[in-house]
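Late entry, evening session. Most of the bench is empty. Finally got around to the prediction I had been postponing all week. Sequence below, unchanged from the version circulated by S.P.
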Amino acid sequence: MRTRLAVILLCLVSVPGLRAQTTKSSFFKTSDGVRIHYLEVGSGRPIVFIPGWTMPAWIWQKQIDEFSKTYHVIGVDPRSQGESDKPPYGHLPETRARDYKELVDQLGLKQPVLIGWSMACGELIKYVEQFGADNIAGLVLVDGYLTDKPSDLFVPISGWMNQLQQDRQKQADGFVRSMFKKPQPEDYLKRIIDASTQVPADTAVLLIYNMLAVKDFTPGLAKMNRPVLFMYQPESQPSADFLQSKLGDKLRLERFDGDGHALFVDDPEKFNHVLEGFLQSLPK
């Protein structure tokens, strides 16, 4: 009886997806001396999740849990976010893009799929502009502000940036709650708010300024020779139209009606299903 039970247990742990997954928390040091924190779990094709402005890597937890069953998953805390160092320098999109490239190189990732949300969408386009797309399998951009006239937001957002520096806690609370259209547990919201406020206020403002200061994403998009998936909610339709005009048939669009900016949290089942379909469509 004991032998039979042992055989059954051995068979169970041998089935892909049923093995216990242990997430590794690690750091690497960038070429300008900044320690970047990342989460790593699973095996298979590498996929890298990058969060948006002031957010931690673990906001992708529902994707990390699901995709680590069959993929090599990495979740990154961008510089000055999460558990990464918070230096007073290096907050240009180009610099943060270089951080991601150095992480890919450090881990020896072959043809990873890079997935960026919000601010990270522009950073990934800067990644392609600087390093090309030959070393990646595809890009997934999630509800980012991408247009040929990003500076139009400078005036309406200036008051919001002032509020951020005057009352960081109030700003973070309002911003985080605005990211969702579906009810989220209060303790979960408070964890995200706390993570957001760990980014120094001046750094948070500078990140927004540098994002809006990008005047043209065309050079990066012109170098994009891999498939791109853009998942977005209705307010980001102008970004979808802009990407369509630049990428043509290299772009796949998926609109999430009824979901908020953090649509992968609001509707993780749909998000994961769409992402899995995109991953399966890529060349092996």
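Two things to note before I forget:
The mean pLDDT is 91.
Residues 93-107 form the longest helix (15 residues).
Will write this up properly tomorrow.
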